[in-house]
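Work Package 3 (structural annotation) set out to generate three-dimensional models for the target panel prioritized at the project kickoff. During this period the team completed the workflow that converts sequence records into C-alpha cells, so that structures can be stored uniformly alongside our sequence database. As a representative example, we reproduce one entry of 260 residues exactly as it appears in the project archive.
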Amino acid sequence: MDNYYSLLGVQHTASFPEIKKAFREKAKRVHPDIAGPKASNEMRRLINAYEVLTDENRRSEYDQVYGRFVGTYHFDYRTFLREQPEDGASQAKLIFFELLHREYEAAVTIWEEQGGLDFPLERYLEREDWMDCAFILAEELEERQRYYETFMLLVALVREERRRPYFRHFMPEVETFLKGLVRLRLKTAVDAETYLECMTVLLDLRFPPKDEARWMGSMAETLAGMGDLHTARTFFREALRRDPCLSKAAPLRRKLKEQS
C-alpha cells in the first residue's frame, strides 16, 4: 500500500496548500511529457495521492486504513491542531477546519478565544482559504446577531476582492449580504458614532452612486439626530448629488429645515 505522504514528500500534518505545492513540484519532474512514457505509472500514483489527500473525508479514511496496514500510525488532524492553542497558524487552520465540518459553535468559540476581530486569520491562512473562512464565519456571526463583527469581516473581504479578485462570480452574493446587513441590522445594533464610522469605511469601498447616496442619506439622518446639523446638511447634499431621486430626500429635507 502506497504511503501517499512519502510519495508527495510532505509530512502527515501538511495543509492542503502544502500538498498542492508538493504535487505541482513532483508532477513537473515525472510528467510523461518531460520524463517520458515510462513515468506514466509514477504520475498516476502522484495523482491518486493528491486526489486522496486533498479531500478531507478521503484523507481521513486513508489515514485510518494505512494506520491499520502498517500497524503503527494514527493521526487525528483536529486533535493535532487543538493541542497547539498557543500557535496562531494551528488555531487559524482549526477554525477553518471546524467551519468546513459544520462545527460552527466550536469554530466561533476558538475564534473568540484567539481575539475575534483582532485575530489575523489572513496572516496564517492561504489567501483563498482566508477569504472562504471569513465568509463562512461572517454567516455564522450574523446568525448569532453579532452584526458589527459580521460587517467588519465582510468589509475586509470586499476590500481584498477590490485589490485582487478571487470570488469573482460569487462576489455579488458577498456584496448583497453586506448591503442587506447595513440596510436591516447594523444601525440598530451599534451606537451612532460606531455606525458613522462603519458608513465611512463602506464609502471607501467604491460602491455604485445609488448605494452611496442611500448610505450618505442615512448618515445625514444620524448626524441630525446627534444635533450636528451642519455636517448632516453636507452629507445630505452629497447624497442628492449622487442620486437626485433619493427616496428619503423629502422627509430628510423637511427635518433639516425644521431644525435650522
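The radius of gyration is 25 Å.
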